[in-house]
Amino acid sequence: MKDTFKHQGLRQQLVNTLKNKGITDVNVLKTIGNIPRHLFMDSSFLDHAYQDKAFPIAADQTISQPYTVAFQTELLKIKREAKILEIGTGSGYQTAVLCELGVKVYSIERQLELFKKTSKFLPKLGYRPKQLIFGDGYKGMPEEAPFDGIIVTAGAPFVPTPLLSQLKIGGRLVIPVGDNVQTMTLFVRKGPKEFEKHEFGEFRFVPLLEDKN
């Protein structure tokens, strides 16, 4: 679990890459610069940890491309102490980004193998989400709603209604919608039944699957 000067230098290069690609949120960039992404990947991928690419992890899932993580996080417009629901804990990298930004993170993972691994791993790095559960992301976490923001880290063929209903008024849902290629979509809750929708171009994600595995 080493984080060397070399790793830190590579992270700063990655931050510069993200700036050049249009990420402007200073807190998000600082967070990407702080988190040792190489620790979230198999050691065989160490050379790739600070490239702006997605990589495979356990259970046929991927650790998202840093640009995608930064882009989605920036869209959430996070304030410290906000209550954020993450659908798809995965490797825990996005979870760590949220924790580092000082928010209360509630996260759901449907792959048992990943859930077990990540829930042990995150505290070792000093990241403590409020709640990490093994469950079905399509259902959200109604018992903890409403949330200031919800971030979905897998491609959804449609927008799950429970997620929209679990947003606070003024809350933001960031979700990649589509089958093979996804459109990054932002929903802002304006009233009990009123949502504003924005679309931000194409991204590629592993599919968001229903039920637990």
From TrEMBL:
<comment type="similarity">
    <text>Belongs to the methyltransferase superfamily. L-isoaspartyl/D-aspartyl protein methyltransferase family.</text>
</comment>
<keyword id="KW-0963">Cytoplasm</keyword>
<keyword id="KW-0808">Transferase</keyword>
<dbReference type="InterPro" id="IPR000682">
    <property type="entry name" value="PCMT"/>
</dbReference>
<protein>
    <recommendedName>
        <fullName>Protein-L-isoaspartate O-methyltransferase</fullName>
        <ecNumber>2.1.1.77</ecNumber>
    </recommendedName>
</protein>
<dbReference type="GO" id="GO:0004719">
    <property type="term" value="F:protein-L-isoaspartate (D-aspartate) O-methyltransferase activity"/>
</dbReference>
<dbReference type="InterPro" id="IPR029063">
    <property type="entry name" value="SAM-dependent_MTases_sf"/>
</dbReference>
<feature type="active site">
    <location>
        <position position="64"/>
    </location>
</feature>
<comment type="function">
    <text>Catalyzes the methyl esterification of L-isoaspartyl residues in peptides and proteins that result from spontaneous decomposition of normal L-aspartyl and L-asparaginyl residues. It plays a role in the repair and/or degradation of damaged proteins.</text>
</comment>
<dbReference type="GO" id="GO:0032259">
    <property type="term" value="P:methylation"/>
</dbReference>
<dbReference type="Pfam" id="PF01135">
    <property type="entry name" value="PCMT"/>
</dbReference>
<keyword id="KW-0949">S-adenosyl-L-methionine</keyword>
<keyword id="KW-0489">Methyltransferase</keyword>
